[in-house]
Design a protein that fits this description.
Bound molecules: guanosine-5'-triphosphate
Oligomer: single chain
Radius of gyration: 24 Å
CATH topology: Rossmann fold
């Protein structure tokens, strides 16, 4: 298990596996999710979450031009308060609300491109791209922590090899591995 943390601005959906575990490249990753309040008056608390985040979803609502405009402010806050190397993905949520759309998909794509982020339109109601976006963010965080991860892998395989060796050495000499098997 490799714990990662992130900020999440939408409601949790049933599409996420139990205990928020995601498997990426055969590695089981347990994610800790923080959903921060979007309102200005909670900003002081929100900023405290940034420090412990390794991955962040910046989420706007496709049916609200205002929420899209807020993204620039979120990005500058994240740049200021989140640790260096934090991974970010831009999300246009409520993609199921097509009839109320105020922000075009291209606008989302364009903004994500400007900030060098991946972009997904999602829906917490229909589960559109929920798993995909979580998996992608997890992947990005793992990639960013590859050195630590490789270190863990090497240590684990060394420990396994050592345990096998110790087990082998500790075996009592039976007929199969004894040089005295032909005495009789
Ligand atoms: N149609 C639709 N409604 C959604 C979706 N995601 C969230 N909602 C609704 O949007 C409203 C706000 O959702 P929240 O999860 O509270 O949004 P938030 O951004 O965390 O809100 P604050 O933390 O108060 O800023 C709720 O009524 C949700 O049911 C979605 O994908 N589609």
């Amino acid at each position: 298990m490799f714990p990662i943390s992130k900020l999440w601005f939408m409601m949790p959906t049933p599409d996420l596996p139990p205990k928020n575990t995601i498997e990426v490249d055969g590695i089981k990753v347990r994610i800790q999710i923080w959903d921060t309040a979007g309102q200005e008056r909670y900003q002081t608390i929100t900023k405290q979450y940034y420090r412990r985040a390794q991955g962040i979803f910046l989420v706007y609502d496709i049916s609200s031009e205002r929420s899209y405009q807020h993204i620039m402010k979120w990005v500058s806050d994240v740049d200021e308060y989140a640790p260096e190397g934090v991974q970010k993905i831009l999300i246009g949520n409520k993609a199921d609300e097509e009839q109320k759309r105020q922000v075009g998909r291209e606008q989302g794509q364009q903004l994500a491109k400007e900030y060098g982020m991946d972009f997904y339109e999602t829906s917490a109601c229909t589960n559109l791209n929920i798993k995909e976006s979580f998996t992608r963010l997890t992947e990005l965080v793992l990639q960013a922590h590859r050195k630590e991860l490789d270190g863990l892998r090497i240590r684990a395989s060394n420990e396994l090899a050592l345990a096998e060796l110790e087990e082998e050495e500790g075996k009592p000499e039976g007929p199969a591995n004894s040089s005295k098997t032909c005495w009789c």
